[in-house]
Write a structure and sequence with these properties.
Length: 72
Amino acid sequence: MSAAPRKHSLTLRGHRTSVSLEDEFWQAFREIAAQRETALNALAAEIDEARGADAGLASAIRVFVLRHYRGR
């Protein structure tokens, strides 16, 4: 796995956007979506709606993944 972020496209509420995350975060993000039986785009949209204006989507996803595995 690469330590460098990789860019992937997501569709949030009908709009395409690119998000750069490290491979480990992409893998964990996909695992969480699978556990919840939800599409990755739907989970990303949920995170996007909940994030503050001061946080970027990639940062919000990283924090979401971290909190998930910390049990918060």
